[in-house]
């Protein structure tokens, strides 16, 4: 192949472009595509540069607490307290290593999730439509574009029907550019190359076919390196608030620490080394540096769990918003139903036929009652079947004995019907070639194609039946003659088929003038002859029925907003278990309502039919004005504004367009309503776990700091030394808090109402909890220390008991905090989760090492304890658990209104 890189494809005509790339109107053969993939490499842009490993590791030393500690290490070195210096440095290092490993894991998880979103593209290979991974596209491929697609490579268009492409990413022009197939002038700027489509731009309307002229880095967007995808960071408003909170708290503590140093030195007359170490201990105790990291990891684990349940979070704040969602607006096809369509009935001007056979294979019969009908002997069936096969963009393929659809399942079902009528799909399409198309659009709800047929030109139209009915003057009778249309008869037939939950489509035909080469709306608006109706079944998903019920229990109402017919929508809504299905509001009715009337209608009905994307937007607006938090699903390019406007936009990963996915916060990889319910559950769980981590760590910090401040203020011996606090905070507390990230949902998680938006994180209850537990911890530490000293134990042993008491109290507090909304004193509660048990086991082993190994005794100034001293330590933990459970009980019982954190 000649040098394609420097060719100005926009100046070549179609044939020359195809020739230059050694391709044809049937695309490349699969073997040739594979060879070119080897030669040109994958169609991918280089990954945005990541920080190097060294920088990532060093970044873990970049926080205030570490600076304080490094300063402390330096001062201890000057004071010749070498052991302290060594311990501080060791802990700083261990902490950075743990942070580095955890961060690496979180990033990997995010990377894997991002990969799940990599786009696919429909291409023609050897004349067949196939869906391939976007990275596998090669120069010479023919790419099929439709509304909502992201253009996967730079293309020379060889077919374009009403094609509009948004090129703002490249040209800055916000109005979509009209595309055609005529060559452009050599000097035309990117925005004026109307016969080209560029990688990364978005198809706003219409459809087209393009020849790939450049892939990957060779594309126009590939040449501009700073336009690469921005990377989603692992943060939410809650995490950000906590990071800010931690920063302020740190500043406050540093000032406070300076004051305490002055106080200890000047007022209490403490020696400098002593007061210095006490204040270092206080800083370590009080600065919640570990908190933001733990929250980030909790988030990463939550996001990963949600991805496993088919919900991919594209924007992290959505996780929090999910917990507040009070209305889910969902579409029907594929989300509540399986999107496995089968034509079950055909209505003609005089009879209603049934069609048997499931799946997309050609096996099945057409029957009138019990009588089998041969399509060839029927006056209407062959033309109806031709309409099904020709006015169609899908393809069927047999894979391992089952037939699968490439493209829209509804169109797949129509191809299967063609097969059942005896028409081989590809042969028919070749025999009657398509000359032009009016692509389907949810706005006009029909699709039309122009064909060359036995010397004449014929237009087939299929679409929403009321729409097509309006375009027809006549209907074809059983004798093959066209007669004036009896609208009443047809409307009744539509209602009857739809009432069974079947989706109804109408098919019509028109003979066009011999010289017609293109068709526009004016060609199909009138003079069509109605051939008949198709009724398609699409069974509801069993799991959606369960999920709708679950949502209702969680205080979330579910509204079905569909483009389908009112009667079909109502029938499916009833099968799914939606509550208010008596009144179905249609798009036309919405148009006639003011906001007040619409608000009332929304509260009275769960089903909205024959809606367009603009109606979705209005529904969101009135619901939001009513104080509701909305999750809204969407798939088409026109859904993007509604997805953006909704509090949570949810796009369909399979049938959804790239435009919808980019506008959405969440993408469902299985298009299933049950995954929305699972996402809500996941979001609520992550939020709970974030709060649990906060509620766990802050009181630990509080308890330690109070003890140290009290000791300094009252001139008492420190119950825990600085390096001991370092040990507890950077080893035990972190391990225990991390286990909370793996907490499964609490039983009640989908039984409580949505969290009102804007509830503060540090709710009065949480603040109370922090104060209460801090006090408990402080008292526990001091009481144990004082008891030990009163019993005549040396200060090292007393401190070892105090440290172990603190850790044991933490462990018991961990069990308590796992159940915010119920008691922890259950069999399940005591058993814990694997993560909790591993953390507890690890911390226990570490505490044994701390207490009994000689080198730890030297490093941390600890002393081995006797068995009875150990029992005394554990007794304090048990006491704390009972006190906490009593508090929970009292709150549950008497302070009903205030929801526990
Ligand atoms: P939902 O919004 O629940 O996914 P939907 O798929 O019916 O439902 P739209 O895609 O907006 O919503 O379709 C609206 C109507 O347009 C359909 O009910 C059908 O009558 C008609 N229609 C859909 N797809 C096609 C198509 N490819 N060709 C012709 N008509 C179509």
What are its keywords?
eight-stranded mixed beta sheet, single chain, eleven-stranded mixed beta sheet, 48% helix, binds adenosine-5'-triphosphate, elongated, alpha+beta, 901 residues
Give the topology, please.
Elements: H1 14-20, H2 30-40, H3 53-59, H4 64-78, H5 82-116, E1 120-125, E2 128-133, E3 142-146, E4 154-166, H6 168-171, E5 177-178, E6 196-197, E7 202-214, H7 237-267, H8 272-286, H9 290-308, E8 311-313, H10 317-322, E9 327-330, E10 342-347, E11 352-355, E12 366-368, E13 371-373, H11 381-390, E14 395-399, E15 402-406, H12 409-420, H13 425-431, E16 434-438, E17 446-453, E18 456-463, H14 465-471, E19 472-476, E20 482-484, H15 487-499, E21 503-512, H16 521-524, E22 528-537, H17 542-553, E23 557-561, H18 566-576, E24 584-586, H19 587-591, H20 595-604, E25 607-609, H21 613-625, E26 630-634, H22 640-645, E27 648-652, H23 658-663, E28 666-668, H24 673-713, H25 722-739, H26 764-790, H27 795-817, H28 827-831, H29 834-852, H30 854-860, H31 867-894
Parallel strand pairs: 9-23, 9-26, 19-22, 23-25, 24-25, 26-27, 27-28
Antiparallel strand pairs: 1-2, 1-3, 3-7, 4-5, 4-6, 4-7, 8-28, 10-11, 10-22, 11-12, 12-13, 14-15, 16-17, 17-18, 18-21, 19-20, 21-22
This protein binds adenosine-5'-triphosphate (ATP).
Residues 331-333, 408, 410-411, 440, 442, 445-447, 462-464, 503, 505, 562-564 line the site of adenosine-5'-triphosphate.
């Amino acid at each position: 192949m000649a040098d394609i890189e420097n060719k100005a494809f926009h100046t070549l005509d179609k044939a020359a472009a195809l020739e230059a790339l050694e391709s044809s109107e049937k695309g490349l053969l699969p073997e040739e595509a594979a060879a070119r993939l080897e030669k040109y490499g994958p169609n991918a842009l280089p990954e945005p540069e990541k920080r190097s490993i060294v920088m990532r590791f060093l970044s873990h030393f970049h926080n205030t607490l570490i600076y304080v500690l490094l300063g402390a290490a330096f001062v201890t070195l000057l004071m010749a307290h070498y052991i302290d210096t060594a311990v501080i440095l060791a802990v700083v290092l261990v902490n950075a290593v743990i942070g580095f490993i955890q961060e690496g894991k979180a990033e990997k998880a995010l990377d894997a999730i991002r990969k799940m979103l990599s786009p696919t593209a429909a291409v023609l290979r050897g004349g067949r439509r196939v869906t391939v991974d976007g990275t596998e596209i090669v120069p010479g491929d023919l790419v099929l574009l439709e509304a909502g697609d992201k253009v996967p490579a730079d293309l020379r268009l060889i077919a374009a029907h009403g094609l509009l492409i948004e090129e703002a990413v490249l040209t800055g022009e916000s109005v979509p550019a009209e595309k055609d197939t005529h060559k452009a002038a050599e000097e035309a700027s990117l925005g004026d190359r109307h016969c080209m489509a560029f990688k990364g731009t978005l198809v706003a309307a219409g459809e087209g076919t393009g020849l790939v002229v450049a892939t990957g880095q060779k594309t126009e967007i590939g040449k501009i390196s700073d336009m690469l995808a921005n990377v989603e960071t692992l943060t939410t408003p809650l995490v950000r608030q906590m990071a800010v909170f931690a920063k302020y708290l740190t500043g406050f503590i540093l000032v406070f620490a300076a004051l305490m140093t002055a106080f200890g030195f000047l007022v209490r007359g403490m020696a400098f080394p002593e007061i210095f170490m006490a204040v270092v201990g206080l800083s370590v105790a009080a600065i919640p540096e570990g908190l933001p990291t733990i929250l980030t990891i909790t988030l990463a684990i939550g996001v990963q769990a949600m991805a496993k349940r088919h919900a991919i979070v594209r924007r992290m704040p959505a996780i929090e918003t999910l917990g507040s969602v009070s209305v889910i607006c969902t579409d029907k096809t594929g989300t509540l139903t399986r999107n496995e369509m089968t034509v079950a009935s055909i209505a003609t001007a005089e009879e209603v036929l049934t069609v048997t056979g499931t799946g997309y294979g050609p096996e099945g019969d057409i029957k009138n009652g019990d009588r089998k009908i041969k399509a060839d002997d029927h006056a209407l069936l062959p033309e109806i079947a031709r309409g099904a096969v020709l006015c169609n963009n899908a393809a069927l393929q047999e894979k391992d004995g089952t037939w699968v659809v490439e493209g829209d399942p509804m169109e797949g079902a129509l191809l299967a019907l063609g097969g059942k009528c005896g028409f081989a799909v590809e042969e028919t399409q070749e025999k009657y070639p398509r000359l032009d198309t009016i692509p389907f659009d949810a706005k006009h709800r029909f699709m039309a194609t122009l064909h060359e047929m036995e010397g004449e030109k014929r237009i087939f139209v299929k679409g929403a039946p009321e729409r097509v009915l309006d375009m027809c003057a006549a209907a074809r009778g059983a004798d093959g003659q066209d007669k004036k249309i009896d609208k009443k008869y047809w409307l009744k037939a539509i209602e009857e088929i739809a009432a069974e939950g079947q989706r109804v489509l109408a098919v019509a035909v028109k003979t066009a003038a011999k010289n017609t080469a293109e068709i526009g709306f004016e060609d199909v608006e009138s003079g069509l002859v109605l051939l008949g109706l198709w009724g398609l079944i699409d069974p509801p998903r069993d799991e959606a029925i369960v999920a709708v019920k679950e949502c209702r229990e969680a205080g979330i109402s579910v509204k079905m907003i569909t483009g389908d017919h009112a009667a079909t929508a109502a029938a499916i809504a009833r099968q799914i278990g939606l509550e208010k299905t008596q009144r179905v509001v249609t798009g036309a009715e919405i148009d006639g309502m003011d906001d007040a009337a619409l608000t009332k209608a929304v509260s009275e009905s769960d089903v909205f039919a024959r809606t367009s994307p603009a109606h979705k937007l209005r529904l969101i607006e009135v619901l939001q004005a009513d104080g509701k938090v909305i999750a809204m699903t969407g798939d088409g390019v026109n859904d993007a504004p509604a997805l953006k406007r909704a509090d949570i936009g949810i796009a369909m990963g399979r049938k959804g367009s790239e435009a919808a996915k980019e506008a959405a916060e969440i993408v469902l990889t299985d298009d299933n309503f049950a995954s929305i319910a699972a996402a809500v559950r996941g979001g609520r769980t992550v939020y709970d776990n974030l709060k649990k981590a906060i509620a766990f760590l802050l009181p630990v910090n509080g308890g330690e700091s109070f003890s140290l401040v009290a000791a300094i203020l009252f001139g008492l011996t420190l119950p825990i030394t600085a390096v001991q606090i370092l040990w507890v905070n950077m080893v035990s507390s972190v391990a225990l808090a991390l286990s909370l990230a793996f907490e499964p949902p609490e039983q009640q998680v989908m039984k409580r109402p949505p969290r009102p938006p804007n509830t503060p994180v540090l709710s009065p209850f949480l603040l109370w909890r922090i104060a209460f537990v801090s006090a408990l911890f402080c008292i526990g530490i001091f009481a144990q220390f004082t008891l030990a000293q009163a019993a005549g134990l040396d200060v090292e042993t007393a401190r070892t008991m105090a440290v172990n008491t603190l850790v044991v109290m933490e462990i018991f507090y961990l069990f308590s905090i796992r159940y915010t909304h119920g008691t922890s004193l259950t069999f399940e509660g005591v058993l814990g989760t694997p993560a909790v048990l591993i953390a507890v086991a690890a911390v226990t082993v570490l505490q044994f090492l701390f207490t009994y190994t000689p080198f730890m005794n030297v490093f941390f100034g600890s002393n081995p304890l006797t068995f009875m001293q150990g029992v005394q330590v554990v007794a304090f933990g048990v006491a704390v658990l009972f006190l906490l459970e009593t508090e929970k009980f009292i709150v549950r019982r008497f302070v009903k209104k205030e929801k526990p954190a």
